[in-house]
Design a protein that fits this description.
By secondary structure, this protein is of the alpha/beta class. The chain has 14 helices and 13 strands. A hairpin with a 3-residue loop joins strand 4 and strand 5. About 45% of the residues are buried.
Length: about 375
Amino acid sequence: MTTSRDRVRAALEHREADRIPFDLGGTRVTGIHVDAYRRLRPALGLEAREPKVGDLTQQLAEVEPDVLDALGCDVRNVAPRSASTYHREYHEDGEHRWFVDEWGVGRRIPLRDGLYYDSFAPPLGGEPDDAAIDGFAWPDPADPARYEGMADEARRYADEGRAVHVGSICGGLTEGLFKMRGFEDGYVDLAAEPARARRVMEKILEIKLAYWERLLPQLGDAVDVVGEADDLGGQTRTLFSPATYRALVKPLHRELFEYLHARTDARVFFHTCGSVRELLPDLVEIGVDILNPVQVSAAGMDTAELKRDFGRDLVFWGGGVDTQRVLGSGTPDEVRAEVRRRIEDLAPGGGFVFAAVHNIQPNVPPENVLAMHAELRGAVHA
């Protein structure tokens, strides 16, 4: 019998399996918002209950085993734990509920109709010199509490025949730059103070490498996919010029991905939103194996063209249905048609793990999730 792990590994090796592998909740970027999840459980004929929040900032639900089993989800996520030295304290100011995260970044959600925690109050804003950056109270990747139970959890999932994704300690290098410096100062750094931008990103890279150095030997062959991320694209173009990416960020990404490939046989999953078609040759060159979320609504991200040009080098993990325009506001029939189109483009020959484009958002009705899933299960390319 083909297991979920067999199925995903076939996709990673660009082979077709018994069916297209499906992921919901197997990563922190293929999840479902608590509002949508709250409605999904009863639509699946399962007991209605209040969701547990698995990702506080994005307000993602912890997808429970009965939902995973009901949908035939093939991937399980193993995420780092909280540091022993960090304790979250909530505050309210009349408009927002907020806290300061382990990185010193403010996070707030509107008290009225808030959907996510947004970043504010960057701790390294202004004009920090090298000493201020180096002397900042960066998170400690050596804290053993972060790793407690991760290897056992991964091994249990693998023994059950599940594919295992293990996430990073934090978001991406440029994402971290913008959170630590603020968007305005971060963009100024990229354009006019590249040495400062590089220094901040190098500190984040050091933490990532120390995390993987400690974790990967514990995981052994229980992990199939290691996840990294860095949002490089907007709706119509990259968030900064490809030349800037190649000069400042690509060397650091190369170091990270080469480090991972040297220490694990797991494939490197890279989440980068938006219009990133121009950067895909760079990402392939430096060791990205898997592209997510495959934002089909962004410029240059046509799935047929991506499969034609990069299908031999990249596994497409996502791109199964347009979350931005179709899954939330379309009819079930429109969702089915969208799913058929993306499967026809991406599934032939393998190299495709079906997931919605990024997390399923709070406006998505359960009937559309069920239509998406039903069309996937009826797909002819499997």
